[in-house]
Amino acid sequence: MRPRLLLVCLLLPTLALADPLPSWRAGALKTSIIGFVDAVTTPGADFVPAEARIAVFDNDGTLWVEQPVYTQLVFAADRVRALAPSHPQWSTQPPFDAVLADDLDALAEAGHHAILELVAATHTGLSSAEFAALVSAWIAEAHHPRFDRRYTDLVYQPMLELLAYLRAEGFKTFIVSGGGIDFMRPWTEAVYGIPPEQVIGSQIELVYEIGDDGQPRLMRQPEIGFVDDKAGKPVGIARHIGRRPILAVGNSDGDYQMLDWTTSGDGPRLSLLIHHDDPEREYAYDRDSAIGRLDQALDDAEGKGWRLVSMREDWLRVFPAAPSTPR
Amino acid sequence: MRPRLLLVCLLLPTLALADPLPSWRAGALKTSIIGFVDAVTTPGADFVPAEARIAVFDNDGTLWVEQPVYTQLVFAADRVRALAPSHPQWSTQPPFDAVLADDLDALAEAGHHAILELVAATHTGLSSAEFAALVSAWIAEAHHPRFDRRYTDLVYQPMLELLAYLRAEGFKTFIVSGGGIDFMRPWTEAVYGIPPEQVIGSQIELVYEIGDDGQPRLMRQPEIGFVDDKAGKPVGIARHIGRRPILAVGNSDGDYQMLDWTTSGDGPRLSLLIHHDDPEREYAYDRDSAIGRLDQALDDAEGKGWRLVSMREDWLRVFPAAPSTPR
């Protein structure tokens, strides 16, 4: 190799990594993230081959905003309102009654399972393709009540940088969310760079059948097949990935088992817990919040070796400066 | 870029693709496979972006030998025999009685579901990690009764070339098998270059729990969670991949729906059906075989546009020349 080319080849990685995480404030946390990545990618005692560099991320509250209610709940509520005229019984039937009464607190309390119930009930008789089209149309238009931006513009800039940095270092990045897998897949590739086959989430049952047009289709059933939350997260990881992650990021007690499963493996491990303590730029909530409750995991984080990320202290910027999603 | 370097860069792809499928006999089939790959990777009307180049492969009878019985059945039978002394009731209880009487015909007739039942019953009370260790130890030692080679050396050389060729052309290759997902994952990466997260198969239920040693683990339950066969294959594809493949390869009626789902999508599609018609080098079976029955798919192949692969005519070599798996 010619000397000048050699020099370029040697310098390129250094240049690229000069600051892979510009929205993370310099300090012990940022140093430990980069130190972990350096350790597992550099030949030596802590080296991890690329194929085992599995990184898993919760979605709601970890990659994008989950307050005042989960985005998927807003989507499902819009659908309930649209279908309500032909379902008069919903006005007294939970969780539909809460939607129709705009009782967000009751809905938030009901959690991911209520969302799945709403989605299952209001999206029966649709094929997978039809559902994906509904999601895509909705997510392109709906706006967050406080920030007046589309939800896909309310993703966390520091997390976008972390995802890109890890992939540049040979990691494979996965979403492991309590939310519906089919609600996320239509847009995760464009927004996070995470393709559908690396999205794990809660599922309703699907049935393969031949439609009236003679074409095969996958029909969504009014039945929950899998809840990818709490102890379901390591199960979802086992089903989809088949190996234990070495890096996990979450923000609530729903991520406890995923973080525990990740850090209890052999060799170097990193688990991060995002603490929403930034009421001005985003929200502040933990132990008393129905959405994204962070209680037990906050108590145990230090003993388990999980690193807390303070949104207020550790993130120089919360959201991307300009809307990232083209209309 | 310097002229000589530019020349090397331009020539490299051509050189590498001179004959990407050396074990496939020159002819219409080979031409159509390469023509399909060229079409979807070349800018133009049939171009498919890399992220949508999803290729799915059945395993038993498509990537490796499935006669005289599925390899996983041999594994499960070995386990039944080992545990039989402490389960006297098995001597009269199907499908255990067939195993203990060495009645391979009855077992073959019972199919994938019986395998899952045997595996579920004989591998209860094990963690995922313990099960993977059992599989790894078994597959490293067990030999095929006719060929006296390890099962992982009885993979099809032409299919190894097709997998490598597709990956070199930007495809992502997945296994979609009726066999057990956890029986395949310990060895598919070394043997096929397909990582665990791209292996889809039948599943037994898993439960996440904290063991007596205080460490989390995933325990295998005596309950079948998902059967990835026939109409289950497109469902498995939807759950794991979330988009429709553009290329599918199978060899039996169990692959019918996977092939149909693949070819009924828009744009260029390729489905191949491997016909076992080579009794000298491998086996000859189709309509009357309990293992890998090929009947309806054989009738409908021409009308559906699925290409038949004649093992005898189209493959210059069936197995790798030398054992591919290091001891």
From TrEMBL, chains A, B:
Signal peptide: 1-18
UniProt xrefs under Gene3D superfamilies: HAD superfamily/HAD-like
Pfam families given in the database record: HAD (PF12710)
Keyword vocabulary terms for this entry: Signal
Identification of the protein by name: Haloacid dehalogenase
